[in-house]
């Protein structure tokens, strides 16, 4: 009898739509909401990479707040203190992509072992999972807080190996972030790039094992 497949999912951008917070408040932000959201996400990731590279621990939430403040200043959007607070509240309860709950439930029913492996803080992940109706689906919810750095550090990917007590190649790692797929490939995971937006490939020397347009491809 073959072993149950093991999946580790990135959270932000893979399970949860990082742009849903600004979209929810687009009427208050105005036409610049999309630029604000893109800058917010871009700077959030940049800050995690820099803090990881120079070994300066920080919480994901503090970097998310800092990135929002940069995005507000750089986007030209008019965002008052109340709207800023609402954006942060909305980020704590991001919308899951439409197929996520259904696909995860089917995978679990088929016997797969599911986990999250995320840059997010533990309390932030717990709230996101709850608000998206995904409670009870994950065997492990693994946060970088355990190792005080961020992806793509090998220390982060090792969390999944240790949690499931398997070799890296036994884990199917799913992420919408191509840089994350590159890091996971270098670590030794089987990698599935969820390329929802049809972006061009990067990092050809660290290719994904498969490219999917949504999580639905996991059921094929």
Describe the model:
By secondary structure, the protein is α/β, with parallel strands linked by helices. It folds into 2 domains: 6-16 and 95-219, HAD superfamily/HAD-like (Rossmann fold, 3-Layer(aba) Sandwich); 20-92, DNA polymerase, domain 1 (Orthogonal Bundle), CATH 1.10.150.240. It is built from 9 helices and 6 strands, in the order E-H-H-H-H-H-H-E-H-E-H-E-H-E-E. The protein has helices at 20-24, 26-29, 33-53, 60-75, 81-92, 100-109, 122-131, 154-164, 178-187, and strands at residues 6-9, 113-118, 140-143, 171-175, 190-194, 210-212. It has a 6-stranded parallel β-sheet, sandwiched between helices. Strand 2 (113-118), helix 7 (122-131) and strand 3 (140-143) form a beta-alpha-beta unit. Helix 3 packs across helix 4 (60-75). It is globular and about 55 Å long. The model has no long low-confidence stretch (mean pLDDT 97).
